Amino acid sequence: QVQLVESGGGLVQAGGSLRLSCAASGRTDSCDVVGWFHQPPGKERATSDFVAYIRWSNDYTYYADFVKGRFTISRDSNTVILQMNSLKTEDTGLYYCYCDPFIGGRNWGQGTQVTVSS
User: Fold this and answer.
1) 3-class DSSP state for residue 47?
2) Could you report the average pLDDT of every consecutive run of 10 residues in the chain (118 residues)?
3) According to the model, what pLDDT value does residue 32 have?
4) C-alpha to C-alpha distance for 15 and 62, rounded to whole angstroms
5) How many Å apart are CA 54 and CA 67, to the nearest integer?
6) 29: left (phi over 0), alpha (psi -120 to 50) or beta
7) Contacts of 97 (CB under 8 A, 6+ apart)
């Protein structure tokens, strides 16, 4: 089992930046990828939007089209960072960190709120 704790959310104006962190602990070597989902207001987590992931073994990264050029995912030891620049109001919502293990179901963090004001 992997424990994921997000931090770094907050309120920012459109065009600004935020840096989200996901601290992973426990069986981190069981993760194939660690990444982020975005749950906009009014949507369920089950239908939230994929944002980006980083492969634990080689730091390969993959992004959703709507964040390419604006967001950067990286890893520092057992912490996964999501640097969010040029934020838009539609980026508002809950951001969840997740781990997809090689075996078994997805692990989720508790989420961190990002609010982008116009």
Assistant:
1) helix
2) 96 98 95 97 90 96 97 97 98 97 95 98
3) 97
4) 23
5) 14
6) alpha
7) 4, 5, 6, 20, 22, 24, 34, 35, 36, 80, 108, 109
For residue 8, give the amino acid letter. Answer: G
Three-class SS of residue 104? coil
Q: Write down how long the chain is.
A: 118
Provide the 10 A C-beta neighbour count for residue 110.
Answer: 10
The C-alpha atoms of residue 77 and residue 111 are separated, in whole angstroms, by 20
Strands (E) in 1-118, as ranges, are 2-7, 10-13, 18-26, 31-39, 49-55, 61-63, 71-76, 79-84, 93-101, 107-108, 112-117
Q: Which of 33, 16, 32, 4 is nearest to 111 (CA)?
A: 4
Q: Phi and psi of 89, rounded to 5°?
A: -60, -30
